[in-house]
Design a protein that fits this description.
By secondary structure, the protein is an alpha+beta fold. Helices cover about 30% and strands about 25% of the residues.
Length: about 270
């Protein structure tokens, strides 16, 4: 039975924690579930859904909207259908509801072939990205857009490791771009990830680029056997954050904590 919203136990939204919510899209193909997701969407979102040409893209869009609405309502006494969103000039969705807590929620979304990731924290820049590792890596993108030191590091690798390393770099670069919220106005060759040192993730900026490595914390993991993901979080000096990962089917009491990450790589510097 659905609890009245006043009696619900809300999740804490902390500046020292990032909550990561995973949806495996295969688990959401159910007629009744889909109908209940559609009831959460605004008329404008329903129009957007209908504009996708491929059924899989329509379904992913619908599940993503339901996920964001359902999960946000676990933190704040606002019903899933009452969340309002707006976009910044670069297309990044943010919350438009006019109350104090809503204004403090940072969230970011990524989806790739059967997986949707929603990351949430409080009052910090946050970006997430995921890619499917079974695709063949578009190495010409690395050669054209990655930084010279990333290209050189890629070309030093044995061929068998190249594809995975490309996607590790790609997701990290996207997670940073998404945390900044400015899309591809950030030149991809102005910052580099160095993954050659143990399991550490190190970002380095070109001297002309206005940002500091010490502002950012990265985490990379495998949310499924076929996916790689990266998270970028803005953290002031001396601060630390933990990441809690849950798998969920939106609107079902299905939430489980996930601990079987295949690889983590974390570093504060
Ligand atoms: C839109 C962009 C932010 C990410 O797109 P993407 O990696 O193709 O797609 P993802 O699934 O990871 O992310 C899409 C989500 O990002 C969010 N998003 C959109 N614009 C955003 C922005 N400017 N900043 C942060 N997040 C944004 C949205 O929530 C979107 O999901 P939704 O449409 O369901 O709400 C942008 O960086 C882009 O166009 N990238 C192009 C890809 C590329 O060339 N990457 C090179 C990496 S090395």
């Amino acid at each position: 039975m659905e609890l009245p919203i006043d009696n619900k136990q809300f999740l804490a939204l902390s500046r020292e924690q990032v909550d990561v919510w995973l949806v495996y899209v295969d688990e959401t193909y159910d007629e009744n579930l889909v109908a209940s997701y559609r009831r959460l969407l605004t008329a404008q979102e329903l129009e957007q859904e209908a504009r996708f040409y491929f059924p899989n893209d329509r379904h992913r869009f619908l599940v993503t909207r339901a996920l964001v609405r359902d999960v946000l309502s676990r933190y704040e006494a606002i019903s899933p259908q009452d969340w309002r969103f707006e976009q910044n000039a670069y297309g990044r969705p943010t919350i438009a509801n006019d109350n104090v807590i809503s204004k403090l929620i940072s969230f970011n979304i990524s989806h790739s072939d059967g997986l949707i990731i929603l990351s949430i924290t409080r009052d910090r820049a946050l970006g997430v990205d995921t890619e499917n590792l079974t695709r063949s890596a578009p190495m010409q993108i690395a050669n054209s857009y990655f930084s010279p030191r990333e290209i050189a590091a890629l070309h030093r690798l044995p061929a068998a490791l190249l594809s995975q390393r490309f996607f590790e770099l790609w997701t990290l670069k996207e997670s940073y771009i998404k945390a900044r919220g400015m899309g591809l106005t950030i030149p991809l060759d102005q910052f580099s990830f160095n993954l050659d040192v143990d399991q550490q993730i190190r970002i380095e900026f070109e001297t002309a680029f206005d940002d500091l490595s010490s502002r950012w914390w990265f985490w990379q993991w495998r949310p499924s056997a076929n996916h790689i993901a990266a998270l970028c979080l803005e953290l002031e000096d001396g601060a630390a954050a933990t990441v809690i990962t849950r798998k969920v089917i939106p609107l079902l009491p299905s939430e489980t904590l996930v601990s079987n990450m295949l690889r983590t790589s974390t570093r504060r510097y």
